[in-house]
Amino acid sequence: MDAQRKSAAVVLALACAGAFVVILDATIVSVALPAIRAELGFTDATLPWVVNAYTLAFAGLLLLGGRLSDVIGQRRMFVLGMGLFTLARAAGGLAVSAELLLAARAVQGVGGALLMPVTLSLLTTTFTDPAKRARMLGAWSAVGAAGAASGPVLGGLLTQWAGWRWVFFVTVPIGVLAVVVAWAVLPSRPGGAERPRLDVLGAVLVTAGLVGIVYAVMHSSEAAWAEVSVWSPLLAGLVVLGVFLVHQSRWSREPLVPLGLFRQRSVSSGNVVMLLLGLGFFASPILLSLYLQDVHGYSPLGAGLGYLPIGAAQFAGAQVAGSLSVRLGVRRAAALSCLLGAAGLACIALLTGVHASYATSVMLPGLVFGFGTTAAFTPITMGATSGVPAHQNGLAAGLLNTVRQTSGAIGLAALSVLSAAAAASWRSAHPGDELDALAHGYTAAFSASAVCVAVAGIIAAAAMPGMSVSARKPGQRSGSSGEWQPSSRSR
User: Which of 2, 246, 434, 461 could serve as a FRET partner for 63 with CA atoms 20 to 30 Å apart?
Assistant: First the structure.
């Protein structure tokens, strides 16, 4: 029993380490962009690609990464993903030109896409007891929240005191240690196990479609939607995704995404709720940082420190999410958490302004927003991955992570465009009132975020199955009351 506990603890540590380094990257690099531009000679047009090169590769390959976890096994996939991610980060820190850094960032995105799904599937396959799984997913979410919240502060400190290259080097020791431990501890794929085939054409189609859509949305912040450089990749991406769906339903013998998976109410509703939550949530930390800098004159490090209380609330929300899911069930926990997060965002939208104080316009409503939205991820994840056959665990995790990360990229681009458009409209009506125009733009963006998260809560309440979670008693067999159980209302 002690050996089993130690093995489970190592699995949890590896899954959390993988999630931490991937999520930390989303916020730690953005703080170092001005220093990177000054040393490597990026232009204003090419600098965003330090982030975009990673995002495109990451979002486009997540589904493939999830499926590969089922095909080649969790140990090989973890070592491959973490190893590639770590090598690319080291190469990024050593880059001597803009081209080398962008190439390293793209490879890092590939590594992250291979790594992130397996961190989730490790937990869903190792912790089969529903109540324990809830706690472990809560810990996984809490570590991710800590990575997102600490990124701006750590990035600012490293950039200011050690140089921007240490923004990349800082997680290399974690990656090396995780690779060594994973190869030594994680079990190899059983030799007699049937190995599913990889749908190569499906992988190419879905990757190309997602890259086209994400690229178009990100590029829309620089060019109008009517321009060819925006609508053509968007249209091409949608068409390719349409071909992908036809291929999955009619042509592929072993589809990358069996569309029958979406017949499970838990999977389909969980992914829809995650999509809406991601659209409203993931852009908010960056928008809050920009609001503090643009409207109130904070430095990047000051804005990062200003986000710390919200980050602490996010950590607390992730910590209690598991027990909340056990007590209320995944549907109620997801719905209430989303609605709480939406209320916090709505208050931020109402209170932002040139003369608003940090405490009233950011910190206090941010505590509500941070706690609620982060607490929602665990029950949504539990719902969207429940009832999935063991051989599709990686696929379900990859699908949910694809929705989560793609919605974040699209949400950030769309809300940035909305903020700029609202600011421009205010500016034309009130010439010379620049700070008020910027504040008005951020108000519009936060309002849209609140609507997305609120709709996520409503759909969670209406569409997610009413599953209760209880601990399995020793000796209790699968299928008894200790398992996931639909509530009487949902049967």
Answer: 461
Phi-psi region of 190 (alpha: psi -120 to 50; beta: other; left: phi over 0): beta
Give strand pairing partners of 467: 486
191: exposed, middle or buried (C-beta count within 10 Å: 0-12, 13-18, 19+)? exposed
Residue type (1 letter), 302: G
Question: Can you name the residues that pair with 486 across neighbouring β-strands?
Answer: 467
Query: Of 472, 442, 451, 156, nearest to 306 (Cα)?
Result: 156
Mean pLDDT of 69-81: 89
CA distance 486 to 387: 11
Q: pLDDT tens-digit profile of 457-484?
A: 999 999 888 666 554 444 444 333 334 4
Given a cut of 90, is residue 226 above it in pLDDT?
no
Closest CA to 454 of 354, 366, 338: 338
Q: Is 108 left (phi over 0), alpha (psi -120 to 50) or beta?
A: alpha
Residues 6+ apart with CB under 8 A from 109: 53, 54, 55, 56, 57, 58, 61
Whole-angstrom distance, CA of residue 435 vs CA of residue 388: 51
Q: For residue 279, which of 152, 30, 28, 459 has the smallest C-alpha distance? A: 459
Mean pLDDT, range 88-92, rounded to an integer: 97
d(C-alpha 185, C-alpha 227), whole Å: 52
If we measure between CA atoms, which residue out of 489, 482, 491 comes closest to residue 461? 489
**What's the sign of the alpha-carbon dihedral 150, 152, 157, 158?**
positive
Check: CB of residue 71 under 8 Å from CB of residue 202: no
What local confidence, expressed as pLDDT, does residue 382 receive?
A: 86
Specify the DSSP class assigned to residue 363.
Answer: I
Q: State the burial class of residue 103 (Cβ atoms within 10 Å of its Cβ: 0-12, 13-18, 19+).
A: middle
Contact indicator for 392, 358 with CB cutoff of 8 Å: no
Per-residue model confidence (pLDDT) at position 467: 61
Predicted pLDDT of residue 14: 95
